[in-house]
């Protein structure tokens, strides 16, 4: 691709995604208003259906959770009529979608620059269209997700970790990267939903090393508690790839796939060039679940991964192994234990161990989360002689109404490995997510 064509593509993609994000919210809401006027019959929002495979951030999982009737602190559902219309729209067309907006702030102590306020936001439009076998188990579905990630007047939330001197990341999704294409793939269910094949531009974290609290949109802020525990070399979103996931028995499953290691979600079409470099992320996971419909709630797994050398980026090849245990008890308590080891590959940490729990309190969809992590920075990435890092995080996700979550958060980081002047940082945080 020539430089001239690449510039044209970037401008066109930016305009296209901006139009999609704005048009989705405005256009679909106008359609909903008209449809409500002509179809005022009562419709019950469907309960959560079988989760199949994938974590809480996978579009099919997120759509089901968005549509599910929730126990809220206020009992308010100001968008009930609209949500009922979207369910009727899904039944007629096979199309499900969500428009959401997330904003957050991090306020750390002992930063390198002296900055103590980091704020940014993101608007996302994601959905799926069942085009084959609608209403059955062996569906063929087109899945998409587009985003605009933006800062406000100061540095974005994603910049806070580096300013603390943390070998890690915090809410890295809330950057100022602008327009992004995150998902654009086909998902084919087979064997009554016990086998699925996914191909296209995908996010490997949707299926790799998943558990209920890994999402930066609804779970922990610190990536040490996310996919791979910061000890896995993950490609960017919108990576051209293929995954095959299946149930071996009623409880035993496998997840395996590969994706372009040089993906760039801000320039997704360039993936058709970089995939030719033959530099891939590969993974194989074997796990046990209490049942397939509780895939990321009651899950124990072992994940193996390898990533090729990325010559243009100057990053060596590497491999690693991750273990995860999480189990929900009485729909109230969920303890977890997670560990990872990485050999090279450009990972953040080479060893990582996390433990903690989640507790649903009050109205059932509000959540308290607590985690402790020990991490050893990767010597190949940062050099030798760095201190081990220790992180404690506590958050409370408050389901205020059907479409609004507010999450206060506090972190204490001991020995941020890349901070030359301070040996700790206290980080206060606040995140809000609104769903439409």
TrEMBL record:
Designated name of the protein: Carbohydrate-selective porin
Gene3D superfamilies in alphabetical order: Carbohydrate-selective porin OprB
Family indicated by similarity: Belongs to the OprB family.
Pfam families reported in the protein's UniProt record: OprB
Recorded GO CC terms: membrane
GO molecular function, one term: porin activity
GO biological process: carbohydrate transport
InterPro entries: Carb-sel_porin_OprB (IPR007049), OprB_sf (IPR038673)
